Every structure is written in structure tokens, then in C-alpha cells.
Amino acid sequence: MRHPMACDAALYSQCRRANLDFRRLKPQAGVEEIEEIEKDLGVNLSALSWLPGFYSIPPEVQIAGSKSYQEGKIYGMDAASGAAVAALEISPGDHVLDLCAAPGAKLCMLADLLKDSGSLTATDISAHRLAASRTMLIKYDLGNRCRLFLADGTTFSLLPLRGGVDGNATKVEEEKPALDNPDEITKRRYDPTGTLYVDSTVYGEWKGTKTAKEKKAAKRLKYMEDALDRVGGRESELIFYGKASGIVGMKVADVFRSHSLLEDEVSHNGYDKVLVDAECTHDGSLKHISKYEQWGWDTFERRFFNAGRMSSITSLQVNEQQLVL
Ligand SMILES: C[S@@+](CC[C@H](N)C(=O)[O-])C[C@H]1O[C@@H](n2cnc3c(N)ncnc32)[C@H](O)[C@@H]1O
Question: Which residues hold S-adenosyl-L-methionine (predicted)?
């Protein structure tokens, strides 16, 4: 018997062949740059009248190997995803929270729309997917005002740093060591009896590539942060922050100071726009499923309908229901 998912996947493949694919260009792209991209891809780009910055290209055009893609002039993003972001009507200066951000296409578009204003805070529960978002922000040079937290969006309670780099973030009043100095971190985080005390070290500038010494320091920092989590109940991990995100110069304890959702402060200083993209808004899921035409539907059953997976879905749904109630 044919697997029910096989029918959907076949239908999807037919639709895909008949339809165009959509790609977003960096908004700054002028006529000359568009012509250059057309030449590079060997096709004419046709702008979507209802979605600024988006252009349709035929699905057979592979952009990943193109010069334009490698130079960060094109994003691989479909129109439905773009429409979800456009619906937020981002204005300059907004403080935006993206709660299920990875792998980061909408995050990049949000950062693009904010330009050099406001702030962008993003969480995802999956470490490797969030690391991909960080790579995208760095590739497209869009991370300046961003903070990325490995965190559960259902309990995330950190407010935006409204002042950004020039505003109300805790400032360094005196020369203090940056986080990548392990000796200073140890001295400041533990008293002589080894008891943890409030962290007064401050964040230095984000460093993308780490030397062996820095990796060792980061490992020790991670160990201490885990200890902090255990005693202080902190649940997020900061995995990236931009120069103008407000983090540089802040005390660790202040970065992770969470807020009760009932506090007045939240209504005054909370986020202006929140994106919760837990479900896919585009047809990417079907695209993944259609791969099982080649891999075999037995593999699909084994991976998705096994007893362990099914029981984890049941408990997830029960938890979500409780959350809604
Ligand atoms: C549809 S994808 C998001 C796509 C993303 N917005 C983009 O544009 O690239 C859903 C994401 O939600 C994340 N997720 C699921 N449950 C979560 C939770 N409780 N907290 C944070 N992230 C969660 C998953 O790890 C996954 O990366």
C-alpha cells in the first residue's frame, strides 16, 4: 500500500515544478546591483509587487553556488516567510523579539528592516540550529543590534536593552576585565571558600573566531555559567551579541536579570513586536518530506512514528495545552 505521506509529497513536487521560487535581495540593492545579480544568475528577476525586496526566480536556478549568494547579496527565503515578517510592520526603533528564530531567515529580514535602530533579541531551543542563525547574521553583517539566546521561548523573560549601545545598559564605570580572561573570571565569581557570588564581570566585544587560549577560557566560563544556572535558576545562554546590542560593558548578572511577567516594567519596557514561528509558515516541511520518495517511506515511519517519538509528542502537546489553559 502507498504511504499516505507519499501522495502529499508527490503533489508537492508537482506544485513546485509549476511554481516560481522566491528570493529576497538586500533592501539596499539598487538597479545596478540587480542587473549584476541577474547577470550572475543568468535570469531576469521579477519583483513581487506586494512584498518589497522580494524577487521571483525559476525554481531550477540554484543560487547557493552563485557569486551573489556567496557575497551575501541574496537570501534564500520564500515569499510566505517574508509575508509573516512583513505582517509585523516593523518601524525604525522597534524592539523586536523572535522566539523561535533558527535557522534565521526571518531574523535576518527583521534585522534588515530595523537597520541601525531599535534592538533584536532572538531565542531558539536548539543549539545547533541557533548556531546556524549566528552564522547567517555574521555572513550578512546584520548582527550589530542582535542578541541570540539559547533558551526556551515559553519561559524566556529578559527585557530588551532599550538604550542599545548609547542608552541605559549598565555601563562600565572603571576598567574591568573582559570575559575572556579566565583568571579574572575565577577571582570574581568565587570567594576563597569556593562559594558563588554575584557576577560583576562585564562583557567585552563579541569575538567570532577563538584562539586556543580563548577556547579554554570559554570552556571555563561555560562551566561556571552552568554552575550559575544550577544555583540561580538561569535558563538562557547568550550565544551571540552585536557591538550595538547593549551587551558590551554590561555585567553578566544584569544581562540575565529576568522579570516577572506581572511587573509594570514589562508593559513599559517590553518588546514592541514579537514573532513566534514555532510552526513552519512555508512549504519547507513538505519539501523535506518529499525527500522520502527517494529514501523510502519505511525510513520515514521508523524516524517519525516510532514509539519513543510518539510518546514525546504526546507529552509536548499536553504541556502546550496546559500552557494555553
Ligand atoms: C519553523 S522553525 C523557525 C524558522 C525561523 N523562524 C526562520 O525563519 O528561519 C521553528 C523553530 O522553533 C524552535 N522551537 C521549538 N520549540 C521552541 C521553544 N519552546 N523555544 C524556543 N524555540 C523553539 C525549533 O528549534 C525551530 O528552530
Answer: 124, 152
